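[step 3/7] inverse_fold.run input=structure_tokens len=342
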């Protein structure tokens, strides 16, 4: 079969490799679509720990082609999405139910071979069924949506509440939709690209702001802003210093800032502890998708979340190495690798 191999930092190529086979507890899945994520680019540049050679791709879904002898509840031909994050189940964090903090996390597409290939093998416990009627490309959104769901769960949005989302990539645009589903009445997106602001407003944002056009704090939380005094919840979905700093200033007293964006390791930001104390702000980190993949699959399966308009481009396995090795094109939201399309 064909697989995109990260052979070393800075070296990625399409190779012919042996088709894997399912162990007793595994599913062999023919990939229908696998999303390209910023993490794949970080792996290529050596900015995220992994041990090449490995096949990247952790946002995948496809059709079961073979099942191991101990597999129950799945059949050949089922469409499934895979939660790539395999927790060990035996470290203190796993025992406490904090599987995303597992000390021995073994992630498909990072530590073991993933979805930029014709086939992937995954343990049955990581799989969730998707309906046969679903558009084959939509299953690739379960993983990013599951990460956003964790952030939204942590934020505990109340019906009628107000939300700001900073950063209009796929994570921000999914979070906008989830915030509306969770009952927020006001959802403001801040992102620089006009096309993303327009899309966010079509997907449920009640307003959007251009951080390049003036002071974001004034525009949103200032006396003449969209939500004077600030909002209940801010989701930082850009992973840059400006937005992390803004998140603490856009939350109203008693409000919550959720850091979803991955800022470069070692980066420091300025905040005023007095402000945190005096306004009783909560600042939370949201990491991965603990126990949210199944719900993400249901939201995708029922069409409750719009994903079709987030697909900017579909590429073949042959085209995938260049896509991963280069920065995203302007305006691009999500690129999907679709094996067998070429
Ligand atoms: P992305 O496409 O890079 O989206 C981030 C967007 O933020 C950028 O494209 C940019 O859009 C916008 N941005 C940059 N600077 C900004 C600023 N000063 N103000 C407002 N917006 C700004 O990435 P993504 O796939 O949506 O992911 C977003 C972040 O979440 C990444 O850091 C990713 O690593 C992280 N992530 C975290 C988890 C988790 O478990 N916590 C899971 C998946 C991804 P414009 O050009 O329109 O401004
Ligand atoms: Zn563990």
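[step 3/7] decode complete -> sequence:
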């Amino acid at each position: 079969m064909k697989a995109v191999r990260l052979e070393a930092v800075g070296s990625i190529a399409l190779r012919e490799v042996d088709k894997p086979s399912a162990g007793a507890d595994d599913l062999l899945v023919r990939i229908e679509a696998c999303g390209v994520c910023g993490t794949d680019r970080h792996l290529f540049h050596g900015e995220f720990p992994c041990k090449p050679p490995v096949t990247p791709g952790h946002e995948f879904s496809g059709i079961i082609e073979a099942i191991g002898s101990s597999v129950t509840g799945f059949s050949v031909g089922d469409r499934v999405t895979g939660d790539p994050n395999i927790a060990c189940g035996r470290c203190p964090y796993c025992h406490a139910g904090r599987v995303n903090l597992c000390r021995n996390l073994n992630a498909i597409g990072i530590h073991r071979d993933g979805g930029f290939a014709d086939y992937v093998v995954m343990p049955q416990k990581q799989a969730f069924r998707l309906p046969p009627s679903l558009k084959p490309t939509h299953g690739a959104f379960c993983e990013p949506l599951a990460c956003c769901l964790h952030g939204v769960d942590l934020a505990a949005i109340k019906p009628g509440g107000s939300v700001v989302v900073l950063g209009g990539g796929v994570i921000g645009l999914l979070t906008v939709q989830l915030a509306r589903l969770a009952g927020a009445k006001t959802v403001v997106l801040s992102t620089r690209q006009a096309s993303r602001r327009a899309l966010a407003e079509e997907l449920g944002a009640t307003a959007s702001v251009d951080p390049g056009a003036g002071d974001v704090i004034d525009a949103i939380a200032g006396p003449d802003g969209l939500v004077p005094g600030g909002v209940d919840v801010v989701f930082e979905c850009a992973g840059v210093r400006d937005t992390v700093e803004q998140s603490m200033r856009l939350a109203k007293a008693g409000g919550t800032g959720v850091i979803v964006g991955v800022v470069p390791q070692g980066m420091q930001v300025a905040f005023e502890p007095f402000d945190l104390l005096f306004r009783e702000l909560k600042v939370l980190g949201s990491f991965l998708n603990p126990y949210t993949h199944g719900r993400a699959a249901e939201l995708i399966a029922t069409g409750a979340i719009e994903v079709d308009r987030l697909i900017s481009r579909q590429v073949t396995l042959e085209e995938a190495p260049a896509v991963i090795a280069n920065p995203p094109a302007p305006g691009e939201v999500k690129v999907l690798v679709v094996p067998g399309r070429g």
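[step 4/7] annotate
The first strand starts at residue 2 and ends at 8.
The longest helix spans residues 142-155.
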